[in-house]
Structure formats: C-alpha cells, structure tokens
Write a structure and sequence with these properties.
By secondary structure, the protein is an all-alpha fold. The chain is built from four helices and no strands.
Amino acid sequence: CNWYSVRSVGSLPQDEAMERGADIFAESVVVGVAVSVLVVEYQLQASRAEVKRRRELEALEEKDVEMATEIRVLEERVKALESKVRLLGGVPKVDKEEVKMRVKAERREKDKVKGRGEEAAPAGVAEDKQVATDRDPWWKRWRRSMSDG
C-alpha cells in the first residue's frame, strides 16, 4: 500500500543545491546543539536531585543515630536508677485502684473546665482522701505504701 510515490526528481543547479544543502546542514547543527543542551540540562537536573536526595538521606541517618544514641543513654540511666532503687530498698508499690480513682478525678476536673458539667462521684470514693493523698510528697506516699503492704 503506497500512499505516496515519487514520480520524478527534478535537477537543481549546483549553486542552489549547495545552498539548500548548507541550509539543511546548518539547521541540523542547530537542532543537534539544542538537543545536546536539553540532554545535558536534564542530566544536571537529575544529578542535582540525586545530590539533594542523598543530603536528605544523610540528614535522616544522622538524626536516626542521634535518636538511637539518646535512647541508649536513657536506657542506661534507667538501669542505673533501677540499681540505685534496689540498693535503697526496692520500688514502692503502686495501688492500681488508687491511681484509677485519681485518673477519674482528673477527668472530672477536665470535664468541669470544658463545661461538660459535674458528674457524681462513684459510691464509696472519698474525694477528700484523694486530695490529701495527691498533696503528699512522693516519699510520704511511698512510705505509706511500704507500711501498708
């Protein structure tokens, strides 16, 4: 299936043929230079993006090392404090129910501040005792828990 067929090619004078050939050559040089500039520009942009990505990756790796170092330092501090606590007589017992009552009381206070209204205290909960317990220093609560348990 020929869509187009060349019937004949006319001859050109040599001067005109040289001029057209030079024009075609000049245009191809311009197109070649433009394509080369585009390729080089694309490669430079890609390399800049790669350098930026590497810098970001290095920054993230540095941050990861810093965080891992901080975690390690904190773990070592906890171990040292645990050994000191063991030497001083152990960790104080924590009454889960007492903590639960304090959490509920704190939430009721937050609800009051937010304007949700005051909820009734659960039966058998003495809020005066909670307030007094909350005001005691930690060491008094610890001593009390050691004498209770």
